[in-house]
From TrEMBL:
Gene3D superfamilies: Vaccinia Virus protein VP39. The gene is rsmD. This is 16S rRNA (Guanine(966)-N(2))-methyltransferase RsmD. It holds the Pfam family Cons_hypoth95. InterPro entries: DNA_methylase_N6_adenine_CS, RNA_MeTrfase_RsmD, SAM-dependent_MTases_sf.
Amino acid sequence: MRVVSGKFGSRSLKPVPGSKTRPTTDKVKESLFNMIGPFFNGGTFLDLYAGSGSVAIEAVSRGIDKAILVDHQYLAIKTIKENVEMTKEKDSFQVYKMDSDLALEKFSNDNAKFDFIFLDPPYKDQKMVEQLEYIKKSSLLQENGIVICETDDNVNLQDDVDGFSLIKQKKYGITIISIYKIKG
């Protein structure tokens, strides 16, 4: 596992030990960033199920100003902190050990706004539709912000989730990347 491109490109990242976390492959990560824009001029990125932190680190490597990483698992948080340390840019990251729903509530209470929100929960624990609805209701996205959902081919996300429109979707093996924008 590595950073694919940008200022941290080719640097190795540690995976989360054990089998509780499924990392996004380098191929899927590269494709995801090709779909949303290969490089950025600032912005904020929320990774709600951060695992090793590789997707958020990739976002900062490609020009995102600030990445917020959330995971509820101790080993994931430990790994994220080690991987963030490798960047030598700790100020570009905020790491939270908490449940995803509690994190969304916290960010809503803080009036936080994100340009990108990445949802990649454990495939067996899908609650993306509910979280998309909460993101919309709580106004957590910037005006032109997007939500990126990573699922497997057993999860059937609708083209239009209440208040959102599907703008892109691609399949990579059993992995599906769906990108949503708020309607209107």
